[in-house]
């Protein structure tokens, strides 16, 4: 998929650096000589599979498949624990992974092509209805813009959902301890049996009769029967799990800990929350110290005032309405629901409100060198809002009649753009080549002829074959390096001067302790390489226009 065209080579370079390059302790594989501060554990897991015999494609698929399925299951569990409505728990993962806005209106433009044939109509549909370059359609679908290309979130999101679930259950256990066992039909929405229709009660009575008549267990058990675990133990476990995030996905760690602080102030279960933060600190602080100690990252590039996220010149209200559709109005409708009893209980509302900071703060402050990366925090607001919107849709569905039709229409409206994005990915026959066959064959030569950890200079492009070898690149793609907070302009200019073969070229080779140099199509197109300069070095391999030279300093 197109969104993965730029990110995939970077993640491959990280995986191969662990699998083939003995990158311990980790240095940046695409910016040699600096500590690797990018959260790398997701790629490290794939590297484990490579060392166990999987190829690169298999190593990523195994992990991605397990984490993707786990994420859906964990979302369902979290929603069911909070809202106690089975239909809402099913809807929640769909709202998260098929997220989108009003981009489906662009389908009307495609419909105008219908008189030219169905194939013409399908071909005219944009690659994405949720994020379009050079426009203010910026929200993006979770699968196409986050879970697939940004592999840190693929592991960070499930870990965070586990933590959120333990917070809720621990709080629920505390409430139970205060009031005694709740009624069986009591729901998280605040009322007894609310959300359980008369038809369901009738089925339960029939099941009890069958049990008495046949002696078999026909009753529905509680959604997730669990061992008796104290709230203290749950909070300690949640702290340890949350503390895994700094080297998995830093933005997720920031979001989780900020929300935790706000919920702690609201709930005032001081003992539980102190133990949570203490457990998290014991595991997370050493990781954070390691990441920032002697780091070359310019922290100032990560934080600055920036109003309205990536809205360009759009009005903020209009920007968020078109990018998230009816999602925000549905959140407000659920919270303000007027009926016999509130749809969203006070406890659920107070648990949810701190997550709104994940929407407010990224609309005020830039949290990464590239402002679009604020979505890594913004998405946690959507994640936490999904169960509430799902509860509203489920309530409308349970009431039957026109309200059931309305529930279906609203669900389609919220998920249609994301569904089209996912369907386009699944059904499209378009393929984007990242590495050509000669480049892949050349990478095998590099692995064979160079030692692990060798420093190699090549053109600063995003898809260089060296990324498949695990060797250290003097400099990879500037776009990646910039988003990681590293200053690249000086080194990029020095690489161009080195390949030009001028008087200072030899000194630059020694300055960076370069062991090998690549001369190939990328170097000739991007760096205007001087073949005569490199002919003075020993050529140790050649394939498909790529040459590998060993640099021997006098």
What would you say this structure looks like, in words?
It is a single chain. A hairpin with a 2-residue loop joins β6 (538-543) and β7. The chain folds into 2 domains: 2-36 and 435-550, no CATH class; 64-166 and 246-427, no CATH class. It is built from 24 helices and 7 strands. It is mainly alpha-helical and 554 residues long. α3 (56-83) packs across α4. It starts with 6 loop residues before the first helix and ends with a strand. The protein has a 5-stranded mixed beta sheet.
Mean pLDDT: 90
What is the rounded Rg?
27 Å
User: Residue share in helices?
Assistant: 55-70%
Unreliable stretches (pLDDT < 50, length at least 5) are 181-199, 210-222
Give the terminus-to-terminus CA distance.
47 Å
Structural class call reads mainly alpha
Query: Largest sheet at a glance?
Result: 5 strands, mixed
Content of β-strand: under 5%
Principal-axes geometry comes out as globular
Domains, number: 2
Quick take:
The protein has helices at 7-19, 41-51, 56-83, 86-97, 107-111, 118-124, 142-147, 151-179, 198-214, 231-242, 250-267, 270-292, 316-324, 327-335, 346-352, 357-360, 375-398, 401-427, 437-449, 478-483, 489-500, 505-511, 521-526, 531-534, and strands spanning 304-305, 365-366, 455-457, 472-473, 516-519, 538-543, 546-550. With 554 residues, it is mainly α. Residues 181-199 and 210-222 have low confidence and may be disordered.
Features:
554 residues; globular; single chain; 24 helices; mainly alpha
Give the helix/strand layout.
Blueprint: H1 7-19, H2 41-51, H3 56-83, H4 86-97, H5 107-111, H6 118-124, H7 142-147, H8 151-179, H9 198-214, H10 231-242, H11 250-267, H12 270-292, E1 304-305, H13 316-324, H14 327-335, H15 346-352, H16 357-360, E2 365-366, H17 375-398, H18 401-427, H19 437-449, E3 455-457, E4 472-473, H20 478-483, H21 489-500, H22 505-511, E5 516-519, H23 521-526, H24 531-534, E6 538-543, E7 546-550
Parallel strand pairs: 3-4, 3-5
Antiparallel strand pairs: 1-2, 5-7, 6-7
Helix pairs in contact: 1-2, 2-3, 3-4, 3-8, 4-17, 8-10, 8-11, 10-12, 14-17, 17-18, 21-22
């Amino acid at each position: 998929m197109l969104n993965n065209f730029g990110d995939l080579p970077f993640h491959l370079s990280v995986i191969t650096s662990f699998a083939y390059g003995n990158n311990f302790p980790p240095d940046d594989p695409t910016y040699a000589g600096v500590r690797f501060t990018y959260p790398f554990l997701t790629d490290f897991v794939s590297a484990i599979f490579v060392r166990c015999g999987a190829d690169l494609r298999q190593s990523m698929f195994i992990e991605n498949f397990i984490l993707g399925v786990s994420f859906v299951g964990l979302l369902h569990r979290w929603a069911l624990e909070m809202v106690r409505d089975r239909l809402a728990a099913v809807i929640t993962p769909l709202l998260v992974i098929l997220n989108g806005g009003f981009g489906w209106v662009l389908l009307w433009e495609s419909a105008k092509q219908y008189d030219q044939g169905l194939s013409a109509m399908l071909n005219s549909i944009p690659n994405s209805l949720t994020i379009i370059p050079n426009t203010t359609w910026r929200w993006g679908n979770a699968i196409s813009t986050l879970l697939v290309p940004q592999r840190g979130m693929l592991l960070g999101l499930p870990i965070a959902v586990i933590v959120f679930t333990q917070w809720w259950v621990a709080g629920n256990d505390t409430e139970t301890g205060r009031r005694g066992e709740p009624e069986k039909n009591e729901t998280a929405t605040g009322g007894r049996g609310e959300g359980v229709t008369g038809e369901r009660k009738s089925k339960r009575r029939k099941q009890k009769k069958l049990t008495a008549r046949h002696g078999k267990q026909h009753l529905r058990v509680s959604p997730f029967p669990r061992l008796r675990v104290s709230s203290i133990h749950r909070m300690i476990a949640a702290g340890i799990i949350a503390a895994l995030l700094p080297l998995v996905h830093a933005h997720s760690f920031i979001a989780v800990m900020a929300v935790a602080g706000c919920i702690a102030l609201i709930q005032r279960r001081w003992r539980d929350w102190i133990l949570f933060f203490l457990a998290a600190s014991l595991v997370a602080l050493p990781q954070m110290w390691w990441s920032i100690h002697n780091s070359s990252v310019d922290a100032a590039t990560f934080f600055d005032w920036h109003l309205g996220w990536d809205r360009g010149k759009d009005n903020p209200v209009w920007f968020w309405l078109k990018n998230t559709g009816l999602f925000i109005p549905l959140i407000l409708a659920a919270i303000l629901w007027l009926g016999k009893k509130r749809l969203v209980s006070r406890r659920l509302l107070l648990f949810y409100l701190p997550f709104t900071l994940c929407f407010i703060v990224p609309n005020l402050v830039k949290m990464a060198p590239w402002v679009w990366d604020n979505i890594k925090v913004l998405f946690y607001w959507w994640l936490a809002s999904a169960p509430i919107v799902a509860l509203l849709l489920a309530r409308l569905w349970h009431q039957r009649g026109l309200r059931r039709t309305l529930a279906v229409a609203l669900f389609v409206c919220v998920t249609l753009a994301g569904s089209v994005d996912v369907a386009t990915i699944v059904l499209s026959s378009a393929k984007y080549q990242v590495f050509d066959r000669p480049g892949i064959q050349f990478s095998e030569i590099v692995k064979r002829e160079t030692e692990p950890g060798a420093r190699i200079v090549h053109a600063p492009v995003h898809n260089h074959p060296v990324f498949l070898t695990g060797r250290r690149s003097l400099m990879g793609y500037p776009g990646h390096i910039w988003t990681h907070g590293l200053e690249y302009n000086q080194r990029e200019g020095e690489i161009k001067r080195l390949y030009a073969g001028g008087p200072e070229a030899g000194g630059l080779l020694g300055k960076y302790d370069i062991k090998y140099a690549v001369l190939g199509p990328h170097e000739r197109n991007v760096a205007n390489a001087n073949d005569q300069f490199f002919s003075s070095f020993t050529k140790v391999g050649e394939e498909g226009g790529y040459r590998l030279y060993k640099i021997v300093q006098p």
